[in-house]
Fold each of these.
Amino acid sequence: MPLIDSTITQLILWAALGYLIGSIPFGMIIARVMGLGNLRQIGSGNIGATNVLRTGNKAAAALTLLFDAGKGAVAVLLARALAGEDAAQIAALTAFLGHCFPVWLGFRGGKGVATFLGLWLALDWRVGVACCLTWLVAALIWRISSVGALAAAALSTTWIMVLTDGSTFILGIALTLLVYWRHSANLARIKAGTEPKIGKS
């Protein structure tokens, strides 16, 4: 954990702001703007980039990935610049929760993978890059997006300990557990051999 330099009021404020930034449903917005329909009625019904890709529109999927990652990074960078490292970690956690449980969508959000990668790139670029490469390698080998996500989350704490001073380790454990919880259905499908491949409509 970082040193707690911010006041309780500041930490609560950044927890709320992180949540609000993370809760912006960019997948839903982009799909609507580009005339792709309601993501809730497409594929898995998820609001993330993987499900947007199932519409067949790669540009929309890429934009969703970029904006979902970006909101995690923005939450961290703003909190760090205006408060400190403790607030940045709080904002990172709540931005992830905001994506997964957005108030605007009845707390039914996405799996949080892009936001997870984006916030790590902002918290520590070395861990972020390592997690992105882990996702990429696993996804290329198995051709399953969720396998990449689970691998990146599983190894994130290893990268934290190898590449940093370990001050984000507790946050890393919390985020890893949340990623696995959000992917419980995917884990069941992976075990059953029914998890969709990347690009499958």
Amino acid sequence: MSVSAWNTNRQLRRSQLKTPPLRLPGQSLEERISELQDTFMQDSIVTVFLILIAGIEWLRWWMPTPSNPFPSTTLAVAAIIYTWRKRLPFVSMIRNLRLGRDGERVVGELLEPLRGKGYRVFHDIPGANFNIDHAIVGPAGIFMIETKTRSKLTGGSHKMFYDGQAIRLEDGRSFQKPLKQARAQAQWLANLLNDGRGTTFTVRPVVVFPEWYVERTGPRSMQDVWVLNPKALGKFLDHEPQVLSTDAINAVSHALTQHCRRPITEGSEE
């Protein structure tokens, strides 16, 4: 059976679990890392195979009826060059994915204490060609949380500024992409939760930077997106008024639970 046919058969199988598990923090990044590692291993296996053929040909070269090892050696050298050139971006991609995955796991751990304050916590919510890192539902409302894990230079500043329009580092660099991404994902989540419902829910976009200190430089009323260190999220929530009843929290949590389970139930493997 071919690999593609085997993969197709796997996808057609349905999970035997009546209640599949919810997704974990960083699960999409973990799956992407595995895909990259599998692809690199496949290329490496081909390279090793060609090296083996070349070695056999060189052994035969010294036999009474020598063969020509140069064609196979050429193929082996080409495979080595190809694998090495492909390895370099793979290493960088996997390193960045691991950094993002670990950041999501750290934030996931920091969100767990919020359960004691009446919040429901969800991780790695699948969307259309993207995923929402975290979402929490509780008395203060619904919050979509995007984790941004940035490496810090040794001895450099760990501080950034947010004025409601852009995020700026102390060296003068500024960026808006995380804000646009958070707004778009929060709107998508709101549309998902409001689909077919009489009640209209709003979702607050939040961007968190683990291990960074975020200083707000503009009025909070102008900041539709929260940008903060994840450790400060609990204090932000404590100052928010209660906007969701217990029934509303249960309804939204049920909808999110069903959505998060659906891809595993429909996909899957035994």
